[in-house]
Design a protein that fits this description.
Layout lengths: L19 E5 L11 E2 L7 E4 L3 H7 L1 H14 L5 E4 L6 E3 L7 E3 L7 E3 L2 H9 L3 E5 L6 H15 L3 E6 L5 H4 L12 H19 L6 E6 L12 H8 L2 H6 E9 L8 H4 L2 H8 L3 H9 L4 E7 L11 H16 L18 E5 L7 E8 L2 E9 L11 E6 L6 E8 L13 E2 L3 E2 L6 E2 L5 E3 L6 E6 L2 E8 L4
Parallel strand pairs: 1-16, 3-4, 4-8, 5-7, 8-9, 10-11, 11-12
Antiparallel strand pairs: 2-13, 6-7, 13-14, 14-15, 15-23, 16-22, 17-18, 17-21, 17-23, 19-20
Helix pairs in contact: 3-4, 4-6, 6-7, 7-11, 10-12
This protein binds 2-acetamido-2-deoxy-beta-D-glucopyranose (5 copies).
Length: about 475
């Protein structure tokens, strides 16, 4: 689906008073066996295929924002170039420009080799998508081999088709014979994959397979990655697959409202649809990734709100706590050097999230998220998170906040630790301010207004 980049800007928090409810999820003192390893670069950014040149050439603030993340990672942010427009784009080796709209079909695009030079210019791990929807293997292979010659060092994986489950249902595309169910799609993807692998000529696995719009069966025999792994792909195709991929959009109507959409309990329920798929991919030794994430594929207004930013932080942390799973969406809250582990230690059935990050088997960061909604008018509710079982160490906290759940960066910048990101060049403005958090014999209380997130650092260095 079209992926939209949300920069989140910021602002200083004004704690307007309100009644405070309390929630209490004990901190597991020792590393729970369910804790998942954190990838060193768990979150990447997905660029819509036909907007990639414009992002790269003309939207410098995006790259400045990504540099801030790269600094936290110690590596460039991984990216994906794909989306529905990859299946509407033809390669023209002779075209010297960026990309243009086909004059005979305004949905269609034509691009040239420069598309791939821009990948080398970036120089970070890239998942690159090619067109399967138009059923022109020769053109897609020619494009892929051009990408190989121009950007091989950065090609982490290649997608043959984006959201093939919609080729027929939405587009009535020629590749799709009705009803384009899982057996038809699985067979087509297996054939393309094998033919691609034969021509690609490298022994290491390179494909990101699946790329389905949602992980649930929207109709009988809906295409899915379990079917690819268990039935459609033989050993030779499976060996060429590096990762299995699904997209994560809200499984609700497009008229769904932000107050319901941003709820932690809803995020947990949506992501629970991935549990079996993660296990199936793991059973064949492959990671399972979320290639796109957002509220709704076609409705980007909510994604641009601060409530959307709060939700994507929650979704990202919950996803990584479920196993080696990375979402491609924006999050500046997640810093994860190797050997860290994360566990979701909340109940998953209310609006309050608590994630504990462990290092050397000891809790050293707790992320608290209050996904309650605040319109910007009237009273803003507050919730006290009571943390127990903390080591007897100094605590400090960074708060992510904004004036409301509905606000966008055009109106008011959100802040993290009192710092904002300028809307023009994504420059970090202001000084970082940590809050002190008292630790009374292993118990601490942190108050979060509706739509705020706080990282509590358990300060081993100060012990
Ligand atoms: C970048 O901006 C320039 C100047 O506005 C414009 O001519 C060019 O077409 C843009 N390039 C892309 C890829 O959007
Ligand atoms: C998919 O549709 C085809 C054509 O109608 C049919 O032969 C096949 O059995 C279907 N597959 C599944 C898994 O339902
Ligand atoms: C594996 O499946 C692909 C795609 O259907 C097919 O082209 C290939 O011949 C198969 N390989 C073997 C060894 O059966
Ligand atoms: C919420 O989750 C907790 C812990 O998993 C459970 O004890 C409680 O019954 C659940 N509450 C509801 C309303 O489902
Ligand atoms: C401190 O916490 C420990 C462990 O929870 C408890 O046994 C002890 O009674 C507490 N001491 C005080 C003074 O509250």
């Amino acid at each position: 689906m079209q992926h939209r980049y949300n920069s989140f800007g910021v602002l200083a928090s004004a704690l307007i008073g309100a009644r405070a409810e309390a929630v209490h999820y004990p901190i597991p003192t020792t590393l729970p066996s369910a804790a998942a390893s954190l990838d060193t670069t768990p979150v990447g950014l997905s660029f819509e295929f036909d907007v990639w040149p414009r992002y790269k050439l003309n939207l410098s603030h995006v790259w400045q924002c990504m540099n801030h993340v790269a600094e936290l990672y110690g590596a460039k942010m991984p990216i994906r170039i794909g989306g529905t427009s990859q299946d509407r784009s033809a390669y023209d080796a002779a075209y010297d420009g960026d990309i243009y709209v086909d004059p005979t079909d305004d949905l269609h695009r034509v691009y040239g080799p420069k598309h791939f030079d821009l990948i080398s210019d970036y120089g970070g791990e890239t998942i690159l998508g090619f067109n399967r929807g138009d059923n022109d293997f020769t053109n897609s292979l020619e494009a892929a081999l051009a990408a190989k010659s121009r950007a091989l060092d950065y090609l982490w994986a290649i997608e043959l088709g984006n959201e093939p489950d919609i080729y027929y249902s939405v587009w009535g595309k020629p590749v799709a014979t009705p009803p384009w169910n899982k057996s038809q799609e699985g067979e087509n993807q297996a054939q393309w994959s094998q033919a691609f692998l034969d021509a690609w000529g490298e022994s290491s696995s390179i494909l990101s397979a699946g790329n389905y719009a949602v992980p649930i069966e929207l109709m009988e025999a809906y295409p899915n990655t379990d079917y690819l792994i268990n039935t459609a792909f033989n050993d030779s195709v499976k060996a060429g697959v590096k990762a299995y991929c699904t997209h994560s959009y809200a499984l609700s109507g497009e008229d769904a409202e932000l107050p319901d959409e941003m709820k932690h309990s809803k995020t947990v329920a949506d992501l629970s649809n991935f549990v079996e798929k993660i296990a199936t991919a793991k059973s064949v030794g492959r990671p399972y990734i979320i290639g796109e994430a957002g509220f709704h594929g076609l409705e980007t207004k909510q994604d641009a709100t601060f409530g959307g930013a709060v939700q994507i932080v929650d979704k990202t942390l919950h996803a990584v706590s479920m196993g080696r799973l990375s979402t491609e969406a924006t999050s500046l809250l997640l810093r994860s050097p190797a050997r860290e582990r994360i566990v979701a230690s909340d109940s998953g059935n209310d609006t309050y999230a608590q994630y504990v990050v462990y290092k050397r088997n000891l809790p050293y960061k707790v992320v608290l998220i209050n996904t309650d909604y605040f319109s910007g008018n009237g009273e803003r509710t507050a919730t006290v998170f009571r943390l127990t079982g903390l080591p007897p160490l100094t605590l400090k906290a960074l708060r992510m906040t904004a004036v409301s759940s509905e606000v966008t960066v055009e109106d008011s910048l959100p802040s993290i630790g009192g710092q904002t990101f300028s809307d023009d060049e994504c420059t970090i403005l202001g000084d970082r301010v940590f809050e002190d958090v008292g630790n009374l014999n292993g118990t601490a209380e942190v108050t979060l207004m509706a739509s705020e997130a706080v990282i509590v650092y358990i300060d081993y260095d100060c012990a």
